[in-house]
Amino acid sequence: MTTALVAGKETGASAEQLAAARRVLMLIAIWGALITVPLWLPLLGGYTALAGRVLVFGLAAMGLNMLLGFTGVLSFGHAAYFGLGAYGAGLTLRYLVHSTPLAMLAGTLLGGLAGTLFGLLIVHRRGVYFAMCTIAFGQLWYYLAYSWNSFTGGFDGLRDFHREAIGFGPLRLDIESGGTTFYFFLLGVFAVGVALMGFLLRSPFGRTLLAIRENERRARFLGIPVEQHIWLSFSISCFFTALAGTLYALLNNFADPLALHYSLSGYFLVMTVIGGMRTFWGPLLGAAVFVVLQDYISSMTVNWMSFIGVIFMAVVLFFPRGLLGARRRGAA
Amino acid sequence: MAQVILFNVTNGLIIGAFYVLMALGLSLILNLSNVINFAHGNFLALGGYLAFALSPTLGYWGALLVSPLLTALIGLLVERLMVRRIYNRDPVYSLLLTFGLAFVMQDAARYIWGPNGLPLGLPDILAQPITQNLFFITWYRVFMVTIVIVSVIGLFAFLRYTRVGLRIRAGTFDLETVSTLGINVRNLRTFNFAVGCMLAGLSGVLAAGQIGLNPNMGDELLMPSFIAIIVGGVGSLVGTLFGGLLIGMAAALTTVFYPAASEAVIYAIMMAVLLLRPRGLVGEEGMMS
Fold it and tell me: What pTM does this model have?
C-alpha cells in the first residue's frame, strides 16, 4: 500500500519533470525561432515585415486570449482597442511629440483605458450578450475614425507620421529604416509583454481567472468577486492589445479605420482558435498561420474573402481545438 | 423647416422600419439558439438579389412573395448543415462560423452579380409621389412601411396564437424544459432560424426597391440592428421593435440639426441605456446574463 503510494508519487514526479522539460524545450524552440527570423525567413521567400506582422498580431491575439482562453469571456471587439492603440500612437507622433516611447505609452493608455471604462458597463453580461455589446461599442470607434476626417484622415487613414529613432543617452536604436533592427525592437517589446502576461497568468490572480472559467458559480461561492476579476481581466487584456496596436502603427507608419473594424476582431479570434485557445502560445502560432495564409491567398486571387470565410468555417467545424490544443489532447 | 423635419421624420420611420425587420430576425435566432447571426445582412442582400433574378419571370409581386421564402429555405439549409453543429459549444464558435459565412456569402454575391450596384425595377404605381407638395413621400415608401407593419403584426400574432409560436416563446425562456416536454427542439430551432432569415430576405426585397442592390447592402444595417436589440433589451421582441424605431428616428432627427452626428447618436443611446438601464428598455431582469 505504502510502496504503491510512493511509486505513484514517484511516477507523478517524473511525469511532472517530463512536462517541465517539454515546456523548457518548447520555450527554447519558440524563442530560438523568433530570434533567428532574419536568418531563415528570407530563405523561405518571406520578408522581415511579415514576421513583424506576426509578432504584432500574435501579441494582440495573446492579449485577447487572456480573456477568452484563460477567463472564459468572449470579446468580439478587441480590434477597437488595437485600433485605438494604433491611432493613439499615430496621433501622438503626428501632432504632439516626435518620440516613439511616448507614442507607445499614449496609444496603450488610450486603448487600455477605453477598455477599462467600457468593461465597467458590461461586466455583468455573459456569453453572446457580452460579445454583442463589445462588437457594438467597438464599431463606435470605427465610425469616429471614419467620419472625423480633419483629425484622423477619415477613410484614407492617418498618414504623415513615422517612427522615430530611440535614444538612451549615448545609445541610439535606429529603428527608422525598418529591417532587422526594427524587427528586434518589435521582438523586445513582444518579449516584455509576453513575460508580463505569463507572470500574471501564473500568479494567484491568473489561477483565480482559471477558476472562474471552469466554474463561475463555484468560484462565486468560494467568495471570489467574480465581476471584479472579469473586469480586471478584460481591462488588462485591452492594454496588451492596445500595446500591440501601437506597434502596428509603428510597423506601417500608418493607421487606418480597418484596424478598428470588427472584421479584425474576428481575425484575432480565429488566430486564437487556430492556434488553440486554451494554450498560452497558441495565438502566436495561429497568428503566424493566418498572416502567412492571408498574404499568400490575397496575392493569388481576388476572391480572397471566400477563402478566408471558408477557413473560418472549417476551423470551427473540423478543427475547434486548434494546433496546440490538439497536440495536448494527444499527449494526455 | 416644417417640410425638412417632416422629410426626415419620414426617413426615420423608414430606416427604423428596416432596423426593426432586420433586428427582429436576429433577435428571434439569438433568443432561441443563442447564436448571433453575423450573416444576417448577407441574407438580406440575398433576398434582394433573388428578387432581382426572379422579377423578370415572376414580376415584382411574385418576386416579393417568393424570394423571402427562398431566402428562408437557404437559411434552413445553412442551419441544418452547419449552425446546428455548434449549439452546445462555446459562443466563440457560433460567432466565427456565421462571420465566415458572411464573408463567403458576400463574395459569392459579388462573384455572381458583380461588384456594382443594380436597380430593382418597381411597378409604375409604386414609383409615383402621393402629392406634388410632398414629393418625397412616394407610394413605394408608404407601401414599404405598410408591409413592415403587416409583417410585424403577423410575426407577433404567429408567436402568440399558434402552437409553434408558443413553443418558440417557451424555448426562449427554458429550452431544456421545452425539450423535456417532448417537443423536438432541433426542428424548432431550424424552423425559427428559417423564419429569421425570411424576415431578412423580405427587408432585402424592400430595401432593393429603395436603394438598389449591392453585395454589401446589408452591412450598414447589421450594426444598428445589434444596437436596436441591446437598447430594447435582449430577450424581448417588443423591446427590439421599440429599439429599432427609436434609433431610426433618433438618427433621422439628428440629421436635421447636425448630420455628422447621426451615426454617433445611435451609439450614444446604446451607452446611455447600458449605463442607466442595463437590461434594456423593455428587457426582463436577468435575461441578459
Answer: 0.88
